[in-house]
Amino acid sequence: MYGCKAWTISKQIQNKLEAIxxxxxxxMLRIPWTTKKTNETERVLNEANKRRxxxxxxxxxxxTFLGHVMRRGKLEHLVTTGKxxxxxxxGRQREKIMDGLATWLGPGKVSDxxxxxxxxxxxxxxxxxxxxxxx
Length: 135
Fold this sequence. Notes:
Blueprint: H1 11-28, H2 39-48, H3 54-72, H4 75-81, H5 97-105, H6 110-117, H7 120-133
Helix pairs in contact: 3-7
């Protein structure tokens, strides 16, 4: 998970992360791939062992790092918010970290999230609530 704070997690990458997490769980529980156990059975075992989802952990790391960067207000702030001079590139615009965190933290706009980052206690509560809900 080194460097996960800068990843942009699309739906395709999220599916791959969930698949590798299930593979790790099966390896840790020593369940061979030839057995006829479904992933739902493994997910019940996962919750029983109080393990957290890999994607949720990555999102939490990203949100705490975003709060740090936004409160600092240096060059990283400009890069994260995407406020650059010049023309936009052709084609479909790439997904940004802010867009992924906006959907994870709940209904709201990116501007609302940037305003909430300034208040550290509010930001911690938002992250804790999103992590508990598991969205």
